[in-house]
Amino acid sequence: MADELEELLGFLSSPSTQVKKAALDIVRGLTGSDGGIETLASCSDFVLPPLCRLLRDVSELAVPAAEALINLSQNPTLAEKLVSLRAVDTAVEVIYKQGGSDGRLSKLLVMLLVNLTQLDSGISSLLQVGDDKFEGLFLSKLVRSFCRSSSSDSTESTYEHVASIIVNVSKMEAGRRILLQPKGSLLKQIIRQSDSANPLRKKGVLGTIRNCCFDADRQLQNLLMLSEFLWPALLLPVAGKKSYSEQDTAKMPLELANALSHEREPVDDPEIRKQALEALYLIALQDAGRSALWSVNGPRILQLGYEDEEDPKVMEAYELIGSLVVSNAGFQEQSDSMKE
């Protein structure tokens, strides 16, 4: 059986497209089950390299090769081997060389990158860590495609899973550093997608912002430089659905005041609301972050949003930041009176 499998896998490198296609169809079928993946894992040195090479072949071969690799990369051991075979580099290069003309292939390769960036080694490979000349280049390309595609129905779904990649990347300190660099401002581009109607995009954006806020003690200045986009992204999902009074909105920047001056559709996903509150909490842990939150009337927004909240876990998140903000109220009121 092992000999027959190795012979089959040998056909993946055949000079004949038809022979490669026939072998590839069988291999792709095997990856559709746990047993098949286990069988292929036992001879990974014979299956992974040719599948990676086939990603650069004609679409007829590259598409099923990508589908097989997506299934195989759900196995952490095989995913690590794929990273060592430079599958991350191959995927990005194919997306921007030949995949651009094949939306289906590009979408599959993005999904492959989602799996590979669940590993630290995969994130490092995507970030090109250690390469001073090219560090962050792959990520910049993906972010640009993610943001541009949101305004085009034909490509929106092609790059929507980049949302999951940027969340994975933001879990690593090197990823947060690159996202928060003022030059190029990747996080600024990403934050502007927070009002997307696509739930996958919206959840990815909020998850990325939240992860970046774990570095608020060192990166607060870079975060607050984005306040024009940051506050609406974090406060609107947790503002409830009521319209706010003129007295409340008068203390807010225009982008918040306009949105809150009338009733809105609530953000249905409790995970998005929870992530926004966790990000606000991490910012408010810093003195300058609390002051900035007060300056946009954030405590009032949290108060009214809490009144509309019904999810127990989200309510806990409101209460956590609420206790932090309320404990600072006396200091803030004293500070405000001194300014007057």
TrEMBL record:
Organism, scientific name: Dendrobium catenatum
Taxonomic placement: Eukaryota, Viridiplantae, Streptophyta, Embryophyta, Tracheophyta
Pfam families: DUF383, DUF384
Designated name of the protein: Protein HGH1 homolog
Alphabetical list of InterPro entries matching this protein: ARM-like, ARM-type_fold, Hgh1, Protein_HGH1_C, Protein_HGH1_N
SUPFAM superfamilies registered for this protein in UniProt: ARM repeat
Residues in Protein HGH1 N-terminal domain copies: 104-274
Protein HGH1 C-terminal domain boundaries: 279-326
Entry's family note: Belongs to the HGH1 family.
